[in-house]
Each structure stands twice: as C-alpha cells, then as structure tokens.
Amino acid sequence: MATSMQKAQIPFRVKGQITCIYHKEGQLDLYCEECQQLACINCLSTVHKGDPLCRLDEITPRIEEDIRNYIDKNEKADLVQIDQYITATEEQLKDNASNFEKLSFQLKTQTNKLKHNLELLAAQTLSLYRQMEEENSKLLQTYKQDLEMYSTRLKQQVQECKVVLQRGSDIQIYDAGSEIQSSVTLPVKPTLGTASFSPNRNPQNYLEQALGKVNITGQGLGQALQRHGRSGGSSAGQGLLSTQPREKLKVKTSSTQQRSKARKDVSSPVYTLLHQTKVLGEWKSLCYITSVCPTTDGQAWTSYFGSNTLTLLDRKGKVIQEVTHNAEIIDISLSPTTKTLWVCDKENNTTELVSGRLVHRFSTRNKPLCICITGSNHAIVGMAKHISKLTTKEIAATC
C-alpha cells in the first residue's frame, strides 16, 4: 500500500507522456484506482504494490462516456448560456455608453447652472460693495467740507481777536469775548458702512451638496473610488455612493441587484454579507494548528508553529496528505493566483509546494514571522525588523 508520504512526493507526469515516471522503459497501460494515477507493469511490485489496479483500456469506455457527457453539457447548456451572456453584455455596453453620456450631460448642466448662480451672487455682492463705497465717499466728502469751513471760520475768529487786543475799545473787547464763548463746535465724524469677506477654506462639502446626490452601483465602484482617492466597499456586492453635506462619502452595501426589465436577466450572482455569523461545520483536529489556508475544493492546508510538517485536511478534519519540511515551519500562505502553498521557516527560507515537494524560492536576512501571497503574486514576508516585498514571478520563474 502506498503511504501518504510517497503520494505527497509523486513526480509530475507531462500530458501525453506514455512511459512510466518511475520506470523509463515501462509503458503506461495500467491504472491505480486508489492513487488515480497511471502505472506500468513494474509498478505492481514497487510504487503501487498492494494497490487495486486495472488495465487502462478497461476504464477507457467510462472516460469516453464522461467526455461525451461533457461535450453534450457544454454544447446544449453552458455554451448556450454563454451566448446569452454575450448578447446581454453587448446590450449592456450600448446602454452603458448611453447612460453615462446622459449622466455626464446632467452633471455638466448642473455645474454650469452653479457657475451661473455663483457668478450672479458674486456680481450682486460686488454691486453692494460699490454702493457702500459711493455712500462712504459722500459722507467723507461732506465731512471734509465741514472741517474746511470750520478751519476757515476758526482762523478768521483768531485773527479778529488779535486785532481787538491790539487796538480795540472796551466794547469791542467785550463783544470779542462773547463770541469766543459761543464758538462753533467741531463737525461730528460720520459713521461709515463696513464690509468684510472670509473665504471658505473647505468648501468641498457645500459644493457636493449644491451639485446634487450621486448614486453609484456595481462592481466598478471600488476602482472608481480609488482613482478619485476615496475609500470604497467590497467589489463583490453592490454599493451606494452618496454625497452628504458636512460628511465624507459613504458606501453602503445593498443586498439587491438592479435587473433589466427589457431583456432576460442573465447577470452574474451577487454575494452579500450575512447579518450574523453561522457555524457551518465543526470538528476536532488530530494535530495542533496555528496556521490554516483553505483551498478552492473545500480542503485546508494547516501547520503548527515550530513543527516541520504540513497537513492537508478534508472537510471533516481527516488527514489527506502530509509533507515534511527540513526546517521548523513558522507560517504558510496559499497563492490566490497559482493555488500553490508557500512556507516560511525558522532558517529564514521561503519555499513553495510544487508537485508534493517544497522548492526553495528565496531567503531573507531576518527571521520571518508571517507570510502572505497577494493576488498580484507578490510574496510579503513580515520580519522582526522590516517587511520585504519580493516578486514571485521573477524569483519562482521555474514554476
């Protein structure tokens, strides 16, 4: 019986290869039902010893039937549905251009209206400034004239007093003294009209309020917001972008999808968040787990900090495969692009699991603490002192 360790290290067979990957001269005319791999006559006593095997031509009719079913399914169902998708998408392309052309026209119209209103408001304010300027000028001119008249009269009165003191009679001196007791008072300074202007240093909220409400739905919301420097919601569902006064732009998830009434709905499904979490399954693992990476087929790769073993578990926690590393494993991460598992270990090495074997990709100066493979196939390694970002496309060019 082939052990799990042997199965984890099975070499990779190239498509179309007719010779055994273990025995170069052996022809692949057998099939191992347990390992689901092709084998030769020599494998009966070596790699697949004790495994249930049958002749390859015995399973050929079953495979041919599967292929025929696959062809029928695609020609009668999947391809028909894809054609519907293509037709609907072509209509959506036309509607998309027409819709956004209309939206652009509405936005430009509103913008021009706001510009006109703003220019009108500015003109009214400037006219008010000119009226106040003219009124203040009149008050100041009148005040200046009163001051000049007061100055002339006061100078004349001073000169008359000098003459009286030099050669005036007692009556003249008395009259002059009476006049200075009832002298003209200084003109009162007028109160001028005042105005001030304080520019709004943060008019964005008021401009958004004046422009109107913008609603954006669909998967393109996240990218559109990023291009405008604003945060968006999940691209998996629909969103509502609302411009509010004195508030930042908000993105709200919507559980419903807008559907076209003029044609058959063949749009893709919309994923929504649950109102509350729900336990779908629960089991006790036979091994310790500190890192877990779910696969696309419902299984999960797990590792334990300080251990040198990778474990692949099924939905019920049963061990499907184990891979032993030559160093203690610290963390693991599954590439969303290549679907391969990446491992960082205590020896500062980062490896990739390829065909059941861990292949060295690169090393870091400092000890890694965690690893994450991004959707753009970048390896981000968190270390004690800094974070190193490397491109796996360049490093792992032999994948």
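The record above closes out task 2.4. Task 2.5 opens with a second protein, given below.
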Amino acid sequence: MATSLAKNLPLSGIRVLEFAGLAPAPFAGMILADFGANVFRVDRAGETSTLDSLSRGKRSISLNLKSKKGVDVIRRLSSNTDILLEPYRPGVMEKFGLGPEALCGVNERLVYTRLNGFGSKGSHSNRAGHDINFLAMSGVLSMLGRKGMNPFPPINLLGDFAGGSMVAVLGILLALFERTLSGKGQVVEASITEGAAYVSSFLQRSQDIGIWFGDRGENVLDSGAPFYETYETKDGRYMAVGAIETKFYQQFVKGLEMDDILADQFNLEQWPSMKQLIAKRFKTKTQAEWVAIFENVDACVTPVLTLDEAHIHQHNVENKTYMKNLKGGFEPCPAPMLSRTPGISKHRRDPCMGEHTVEILTEEGFSATEIDDLLAGSHAEQYIPKSSL
C-alpha cells in the first residue's frame, strides 16, 4: 500500500483525490505523495495509457465519469477526502455534478483545489493554453530572451511547475493549516497565469533598483551582462558565470587571467566587446580545465552539467539530491529536506491506470457485490497485468 512508507511524515493521514491530467496537477499530487499523503489518481475508464510521468507513489482508480454510478463513487470517496485536485477548465467538474458546491456541501473539511491555466474567471478562463501562453499573459515572457531575439520560455518550468504546481501546493498547505483553526476546508483557485505573475514579483518590484536599464537581453540578469552568462568551452561544453558582485567579478577575471583588461565591470558600452573577449578566452580550455581553475575560487563559476552528470557530481551525491529509480536511472529526491520528517527518498513506481481500483474501493468500504456491479457495468475498471509467459 502507498501508505506503508508514509508513517510519521508531514502529510501522513492526508487523503488526496487527484483527477488525472498532465504536468502541473500530477506534479502537485506527487509532491503531496512524496511527503506522506495517500494520493488516489482518478483515471478515466476506457483509457489504457497516459503521458503522465509524475505519479510516483500514487495509486490509480479508473472510473467512468459519464456514468451516474461512477460519479457516485467520487462523491462517496470525497466524503472522506482531505484534498481534491482537479486540472480542468471551468465548468467541467460542474457538468459531472462534482463541483465545489456539491462536494464541499457533503464534506465541509474538503480542500477543493482547481489548477488550470487562466483561472475560473475572466475573458480567457475557458480558452485553451499552455505554459507559453500563460507566461505571455502574465507579462513574464516579455522579459525572457536575448537581445534582438524573440522572447522564449524556459521550457515549461516557470509556468506549469513554478506558477502552477508549486503555487497550488502552497495554497493547499495554507488551507490545511487554516483548517486546523476553523475546522473547515475551502476552495483553492490556482491559476497558472496568476501563479506565474506572483512568482515574478521580483521582476515587477525591482524595476527601480538599477539592474533594469535596457531592453530585453541588455540587463544584468537577462544575458546582457558579460558576468552573468554561459560560455562555450574548447570541447563544446559550457560554463555558467554569475559573478555579479564586485568581489566575485574580481576573482572571475583573475581566474581568466584577464583582470587587467576587464577591470571596468559596469561599463555598459563595453559589455558586448567584453563578452566577445571572455567567450574567446573560454574556448581556449576544456570544461574540465576551467572547473579545475575555478574549483576553489569564490567567483560564482560552475560547469553546466547534463542531467546524466548531475546525479554523480560530488556535491549532489553528498546531499543525496537524486535517487535511483527502477529503470536504472536517477530522479530528484523530494525537496526541501526536513530534519525530522523528510520526504520519501525511495523510488516508487508510477501506477498503471486502474491498477488499484478494487483495492481502493475495498478500503473505502464498498462491498464485494458493489464492486462487482461497478466493474460489470463499466462504471469502473480494474487493470489486469498481462502475463509475461
């Protein structure tokens, strides 16, 4: 059972119903599972495969939400659930008869979490979109990119996962904490657009502190400065430089053996030519050689590691940042690290769709007759592993 590893964890005893989706909601659910919550992923009956790769430690129940009996199962499960997490556009859950009014009316302690792109209100609330669209609408995308180039997003990390998953989990934890005072749950509205805007508060509130003085790609933190940049090495690898403060910059140019010609750090007119000189210098040595030069120098210079290298780097090994999975690869351990009740740093595989349907229904008090009726009528489905013979 998923709960066997969850004793004495921060979210031990917390029950979660997560409606299957992609990216933001699954990651939010995985965070909750990593810290001890008992997470049931609700998959749709009739579907046998999923692109969701963020269901570590969850269990899966497959239900037909177009069936009244399938919906009734959700109602029954919700009556004993702490958190409901749904990733749909506004109105979808209401069409199923599973909106906040219906479920919170039955279970006043329920934290009903809606995680979607544009939120439940406004002119764009029912529009389709992806991370890039939510970042665009938040204003953040306009600041991301190099000089003279189109804005570009940092894959889908900033919107989906920072503004979406992490902000949603923050809202859930706040609601759970408030529930200890009031005894009541509430609706958590987690809009990725609003979350991305909130995550970007520093961008909004730092416009007058002297680091934003040009267009996109001309400033200290957006690839404009020669001392906050990545540079290619002789062997086609890269080094990351973040030598913003004067004391770090001095160590940086000294390590390059260019302190005599790069002394004027904040001469903005010289930044383009300084970049060229630094880029040329970095290409004279391999990444390993530069790592050796800056290994014991406090200059904010580090190698750009690949995903395959990150888990074997000494620092990450010492901090147990990664754990080995059942496929022989590595994946990040739960973060942050808590001193007494850390997350579960033991790999648990993703569930197959409907793998735990009967198990969950049995635990929730459904009789054998009720379960047989649900399965026979295609109101629910149980995954049956294929024989390897």
